C-alpha cells in the first residue's frame, strides 16, 4: 500500500498545485500560513468552486485573522524553527537538535491551526453563525477552539474531564465557551468527553475538534505546520534524519506527515526523515497497534482494519495533553513509520519530566510538559542507544506553560 484514502484518515492535497515561491515581495516567509499555502487548502479549492476569487479568499483569511488577533493578541504567522546546541549537548548528543516552536502560535499551541482551518470551511460553506460548535478536549485544543469560535462569533460547547486545569477552565469561561464537565460512567468504555461530544453532534452541533475521524477537515489547517517544516528544511538546505512528534489523538502527527509527503511528491524535499511517534508509558495504544500491524504478513494490509486500535485502560501521565485513550488518527501515523522508517517511542515519566526541565533550563522557550514530550522520545532513544549521537534530529514543541 503506497498511499492511503479518506477512509484511512488521509486528506491529502489537491493535485497540480505548485509550491509557493519564497522570493516574492508580496509573500514573505513569515506570511500567514493560511495565505501562503492557501492553494493546498481544501477550503480554498471549495471557495473557487463556489465562485470566490483568489483575492476574496485572501481577504477572508485576513479578516478572520484580524479577529483572532483582537481576541488572542497575536495572529497566525510562520512559527520559529531553530537549532538548540546547548539543549542538545545537555542530552549528551553531538549532532544537531532543531525545534519547531508552536508555543508561539495562536492560543499557545498548534491546535488553533486545525480549528482555524475548520473555520475557513464554515465561512466558505456559509454555515449559519448560530449553529453550535463542539469539542472534546482537556486543554490546549479547547482553548484554541474557544479563541477561534469567539473570533468568528460562533457558539461553542466544550467537553472537558473532571480533572481539567482550573486555569484553563477560567480562560474558557472568559472566552464565552459553554463548559460541560464529563464524568466517567460505570461500565462505559472510552473517553467520556468524546462520548458526550458525539452526543452533542447527534443533536446538531458541528464537530470542531482535533480528531480527523470526527471531522476530516481538521487535518486541512493542521497541514500548514508540515508545510512550514518543509519550507524550513528547504530554506536551510538540510533535512533532519529523524523527526519526533508526541501523539495523543494523532491529528498533529497525521497532518504533518501528510504535508511532508505533499512536499516530497512535489520535489520540494528530496527525502523524508525517519518518523517516531512518542507516547507515555502510561498511555501507549499506538505502540500496541503498531506491534499488531507489523506482526502481520502484510503490515500495510493491517491498516484496512480497525481492530488494532482500542481504548487504553487507566491512562495516566504528567503529560496530560497526550492522554487520549485512543489514537483516533492512528492509521496515517503507523503508515508513516512503515513507509518513512522509524518506530514508536514509549517515554517514561522520568524522561518526560526531564525533557520539560531541560527545555526550560537550556532554551528561552517556555512550554508545558505535554509540549516537550516529543523531546522525551529523543532522550529515550538516545539513552537506549537507538539514536545515533551524531544524527540530526527535529522535534515539535507544541504548547505553552500556563
Provide key terms for this protein.
402 residues; alpha/beta; Rossmann fold; 2 domains; 6-stranded mixed sheet; 4-stranded parallel sheet; 14 helices; globular
Summarize the structure.
This protein is of the alpha/beta class and 402 residues long.
Return Rg in Å. 20 Å
Low-confidence stretches at least 5 residues in length (pLDDT < 50)? none
The second-level CATH architecture of the largest domain is 3-Layer(aba) Sandwich
In what order do the strands lie side by side in the largest sheet? 1-2-10-7-8-9
Reported for the largest beta sheet, the result is: 6 strands, mixed
Tally of separate helices = 14
Topology, number of strands = 10
Shape: globular
The CATH topology name of the largest domain reads: Rossmann fold
Give me the oligomer status: single chain
Would you tell me the structural class of the helices and strands? Answer: alpha/beta
Total number of distinct structural domains: 2
Report the top-level CATH class of the largest domain: Alpha Beta
SSE pattern, N- to C-terminal: HHHEHEHEHEHEHEHEHEHHEHHE
Strand content: 5-15%
Distance between the termini: 42 Å
Describe what you observe in this structure.
The structure is a single chain. Helix 9 (218-236) packs across helix 10 (251-265) and helix 10 (251-265) packs across helix 12. With 402 residues, the protein is an alpha/beta fold. The strands form two sheets. Strands 1-2-10-7-8-9 form a six-stranded mixed β-sheet, with helices on both faces. It has helices at residues 33-36, 42-49, 54-72, 85-91, 111-124, 140-151, 166-174, 192-202, 218-236, 251-265, 285-294, 330-340, 349-362, 373-383; strands spanning 81-83, 97-101, 133-136, 156-161, 178-182, 206-207, 242-246, 274-280, 345-347, 393-397. The chain is globular, with a radius of gyration of 20 Å.
